[in-house]
User: What shape does this take?
Amino acid sequence: MARFDKLEFNTSGRPSAEPAERDPLARDAGYWMNQADASRREGLYESALKYYSRALELDRSVVAGWVGQVQMLVQLGEYPEAELWSRKGLELFPNNGELLAGRAHAFCRMGDMKQAHALSDGSLQQAGESAYRWLVRGEIMMATRQDMDRHCFDKAQAANPDWLVPMEIAQVELYYRRPSKAWTRIRNALETTPDATQLWYMQGLCQAELGMTQAAKESFERCLELSPRHVATEKQLRRMKKRKWSARRLFRRLLGR
Amino acid sequence: MQCSNCQFENMPGVVTCGRCGANLRVASLPINVHPPRASRAAKRWRRWFPTARYWGRFRDAVAGSLARIRITGWPTHLQTPGVLIRLIVPGWAQCHVGRAQRGRWFFRCYLGLLLTGLLFIGTMLGWVLLGLAVSLHAASVLDIVAADVTNLRKRLIYSGVALVLLATVLYYPAGHLVGLVASPQRFSVAAPPFAAGDVVLVNYSAYAWSEPRPGDVVYYHLSSYDVWLAPGEIYRLQGDRVDRILAKGGQKVTSNQGKLLIDGRPCPWRPINGQVLPEGLKVAVPEGCYLIIPSADAIPAAWGAVSVVPRARILGRVYWRNQPLWRFGPVR
Assistant: This one.
C-alpha cells in the first residue's frame, strides 16, 4: 500500500472551510467565526455579533471573538456597552492589544478622549501589530482634529491589505463627516475588489453625502446587482427617490461642506 | 499549554499564563458570552441627546484650560487652581499641598464648632459657635493664601477679604438655603407646652408645593384681635404663634364636654396645649382657611373668630424642638 493512499484531498476544488456542509454537527468555533466575518463584510453587524457570541459559546478562549463583539457593538452605536464588554474581555485577557483598542474606540465615540488616548497608547505598546489598533488611533486623531489621522489609517492598511480595513476606515471618515476622504479610500479598494458589495454601498453613501446623486444611485444599483437582497441599499435608494428639495442640502452645497 | 492571549507556551497544569497573566482555563469557564445590549429607547435617547459625548469633550476642554492657568505673583503652591478650589472646605487645601496634619486639625475643629453651633442654633451660644466656625474657615484660607505674608497690615487686609468672600460666596447662600427648611424660632415668652427660651425649627418651604393638613403643627401669624375682658380692659391677641391645625376649609367644628367634633365625628387631634379646648365652639371653616385654636391664650373669647386662620397666614411647618437639649426632639 502506498504511503499516502489514505490521505483525503478536496477533489471538488472549492475552499475547505465549509464544515457545515460536510457535517452539520461539526460547527465549531471556527465555523461561527467565519460566519461572523462574512456577515461583517456584508454590513450585517447584528448577525455578526450573534455569530461571534456563538463562537464564544463553543470556545471562550477565542480572543478574536471577544474583539469582534466589541467592534460590532461600536458599529451598532452601543458605546457604553462596548466599553463594558471590552473591560470584561480585558479581565480575561489582560493587556490584549485588540481589546485595549476596542475600549479606546468606545471611549473615543463617547467623547472621553483622555481615556481613549491612554488606552490607544497602551494597545500600540503591546506586542504585535494589527490594522484595528491603527484604525482606532487614526479615529482618535480625527476626533481630536489632528492631522496625523491619514498616516495612522495608512498604517492600518499596510498592516492588513484586506478590503475590510479601507471600508471600515471609510466608515470612520464618514462618521466624522469626511466623505471625500472616505470616497478616495473606497475607490482604491474597489479597484482591487470590484465584487465587494459593501464597498459599492459605501461608495454610494460617500457620493450621496457629497451631493453626487446620480453617481450614488448608480453605485447603489451596482450593489443591488451583486447582492439583490441588500436591505440597506434598497432603503437608501428608496430614500433617494423620495428626497425632495432641501434647504440644508443647498446650504451645504453652497458652503462646500 | 499555549496561552490564547499571547501565544506563550506555558508548563502543563498551570492556571494563569506566565507572561500575560491570562486565565488558561478560560475556554471552560462558566461565563456569560452574550454582551449587554442597549434598549431601543436608550439608543434613541443617546442619539437625540448625546450628552455623554459632549460632557466628555466639555470636561477635557475645562481640564485643558485649567491646566494652562497659572496665577503669577502668588506662592508656588497656590498657582494651580486645584488648591484654590479646595479652599472651600477648611483643611482640604492644606492636605492637598502636603500639610495633612494641619489640614486635619483645621477640619476637625471646624466640624466640631459647626456641629455644636447647629445644635445650639437659635441661642446666643449657637450664633457665637457658628461665627467661630466661619472665622476658623477664614483662618484656614489665610493659612494657604497668606502663608508667606508677614506684614501685619497686609495680613489684616487678606483676612478681611477672605472673610467677606467666604461670607458672600459660601455662607450667605448656604445659610439662605438652610433657612428655607430649618429656620430657628425662639420663644420670648412661655406659650405652653413651650417655655420661654425654647427654640423650634420651622420649615418655611413645607407648604410651597403642598397644602397644610389637619394635624400639622404650624408657625402662623395671628392678626390683631382685641378681646374686651371688662370695661377699659382689653386683651390683645396678635403676633406669630405655634399651634396645631385642627380642621380645614369646608369642615364644621363643634366642641362639647371636652370633645372636639369635626363634621360630627370625633377629631383625632387636640390643640398643642391639650388643656385648652373652648367649650361650646361652633365654627364652619370657610374655604381657604384652617381652624387653629391659639391654645397659649386660655381666656374666654370669641374663639370662632380668632381660630379661623387664612392659608396665607400660615408661614411654615414646625417639626423639631432644638432647645432645651433635654427636650430635644420632634414636635408632635
